[in-house]
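Tutorial, part two.
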Amino acid sequence: MALALESLGWGEADHWMRMQASYELAQARRARGWREYRGPRSDAAVATMA
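Running the prediction step on this input gives:
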């Protein structure tokens, strides 16, 4: 599929392969209950959660 998209001029095959690998890894992590790290919270966000 990545080569087909590349042949149509829609980017490079290695880009599409990296996107697919990232998607599959995220799906596998979600299936195991992994939650994505979203970085440190701001003080305002922490205050509203208290």
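The radius of gyration is 18 Å. In part three we will examine how such features are distributed along the chain.
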